[in-house]
Specification:
The structure is a single chain. The chain is an alpha+beta fold. The protein folds into 2 domains: 2-199, no CATH class; 209-239, no CATH class. The chain is 70% helix and 12% strand. The protein contains 7 helices and 5 strands; from the N terminus they run ββββααβααααα. The strands form 2 sheets. Strands 3-4-5 form a 3-stranded antiparallel β-sheet. Strands 1-2 form a two-stranded antiparallel sheet. It is elongated, with a radius of gyration of 26 Å.
Length: 242
């Protein structure tokens, strides 16, 4: 367990590489990361009804662990970029939920064309690469179909017979988007701690490399200096693309 310090110098809690799915290799310039991703293949085999049942039962998405080996410098950048993507997705989903509340308001005020146009845009934002967004898209497409039936209805009775369930389904879509936002919050916190752990590994690696080189310079050991350059420092130069 190691005490981690974030990029602002604040002390964080203790974590281990095992907790954060970071495997340190014999060559300290490289690490193996284990990244958990939703299993699109498994979800594709399950079908909509089984996915919805999984959600209603409180189960998480079918997932798989992907291992990737890279230098510690790239690993830090990857962790940082992952969190940036989480933040961007969280922001876009917040905008989608705001738009869906506007869809409900437009529907209740009788502006079904405006509601359907806005709802269609939100449906297009729901990618097929996330468990909760897949579920939200299924619901919102159903709501869009119901609003279309309401718009073409020949009587007020028929109109509200389709519209009221459609509005309820929009709220169901919002709940599934909220579930994705909660998932993103948890992933972001976890990945931020992993980023700080990787920064620790990077910094200690560079500290030891430079300390070894400095010691050799002080002692005037030209053979040790040459050896340090050919091994660790040469690796460092190649990793940062100098």
């Amino acid at each position: 367990m190691r005490q981690l310090i974030d990029s602002s110098g604040r002390l964080m809690g203790s974590s281990s590489g095992r907790d954060l799915k970071v495997i340190e290799t014999g060559n300290r310039a490289f690490v193996t990361l284990k990244l958990r991703r939703d299993s699109m293949r498994q979800m594709g085999r399950m079908g909509e009804a089984a996915l919805e049942s999984r959600y209603l039962g409180g189960e998480k998405a079918p997932s798989r662990l992907v291992s990737t080996r890279m230098d510690v410098f790239k690993a830090v950048r990857l962790a940082k970029h992952i969190n940036e993507r989480y933040e961007l997705e969280r922001s876009r989903l917040s905008g989608c939920m705001f738009a869906l509340k506007s869809v409900v308001s437009l529907s209740e005020s009788g502006n079904l064309q405006g509601a359907m146009g806005l709802l269609g845009k939100v449906v297009n934002e729901m990618s097929a690469h996330s468990f909760y967004k897949i579920l939200a898209k299924i619901k919102l497409e159903s709501a869009l179909n119901g609003m279309g039936n309401a718009y073409s209805a020949e009587s007020e009775f028929q109109k509200y017979r389709h519209l009221n369930p459609a509005i309820s389904i929009v709220y169901a879509g919002i709940r599934r988007i909220e579930a994705r936002c909660s998932e993103l919050d948890g992933k972001s916190d976890y990945n931020f701690e992993r980023e700080m752990y990787l920064r620790y590994l990077r910094d200690t690696y560079m500290r030891d490399v430079l300390s070894s080189l400095y010691s050799s310079l002080i002692l005037g050991n030209k053979y040790a200096i040459a050896n340090a350059y050919k091994s660790d420092f040469e690796i460092y130069l190649s990793l940062i693309h100098i």
